[in-house]
Design goal:
Its EC number is 4.2.1.19. This protein has 4 helices and 10 strands; from the N terminus they run βββαβαβββββαβα. By secondary structure, the protein is α+β, with helices and mostly antiparallel strands. The mean pLDDT is 96. It is 34% helix and 31% strand. β8 and β9 form a beta hairpin.
């Protein structure tokens, strides 16, 4: 089977991003976004998805983290779309509930080619370290739109903002891992339409 990998470089007036992504990895990650908590989240995403992910971003974090986090979502989405290829033989759908102490996160997704995001994160503290919690939705939207996936994310309950965001990224890794898994019984594209 061919390796499902991608390398993306994205440069704007606000950010410069270089990344490589192997969908069939072992969970090794080297992340340098300039935002410590976000690095931690992307490391968890890769570890729980069993993705090999190397990412470096130089952004205008002296302004705030918005441009870096959103542009990383865009670059990851572009890389995913390239790595997944023609989508032949994949499971396509992935759903995962992730308990993170008192918080429960839910992620369900479809590698459909029809990008959409439904996000219900609930109330959170404005900041976790140097990370603006509003950027979780911005990241997920950018990723879903550029990856071409339908993505539903919800925090069912919880009180600790760190746990809520961590639950989301871990659940996203697991759900995506399920969806990209190859199934030998699926010989073509997993759609009755014949195309995704």
């Amino acid at each position: 089977m061919s390796a499902r990998t991608a390398a993306v470089e994205r440069t704007t007036a606000e950010t410069s991003i270089r990344l490589t992504w192997n969908l069939d990895g072992t969970g090794k990650a080297e992340i340098a976004s300039g935002i410590g908590f976000f690095d931690h989240m992307l490391n968890l995403f890769a570890a729980h998805g069993l993705f090999d992910l190397k990412l470096e971003c130089r952004g205008d974090i002296e302004v705030d983290g918005h441009h870096s986090v959103e542009d990383i979502g865009i670059a990851l989405g572009d890389a995913f779309r390239e790595a997944i290829g023609d989508k032949r033989g994949i499971t396509r759908y992935g759903t995962f509930y992730l308990p993170m102490d008192e918080a429960l996160a839910f992620v369900s997704l479809d590698i459909s080619g029809r990008p959409f995001l439904v996000y219900e994160g609930g109330s959170m503290a404005p900041m976790i370290g140097g990370y603006d919690t509003e950027l979780t939705e911005e990241f997920l939207r950018a990723f879903a739109m550029h990856a071409g996936i339908t993505l539903h994310v919800r925090i069912l309950y919880g009180t600790n903002s760190h746990h809520k965001v961590e639950g989301i990224f871990k659940a996203l890794g697991h759900a995506l891992r399920i969806a990209v898994a190859r199934d030998a019984r699926v010989t073509g594209v997993p759609s009755t339409k014949g195309v995704l």
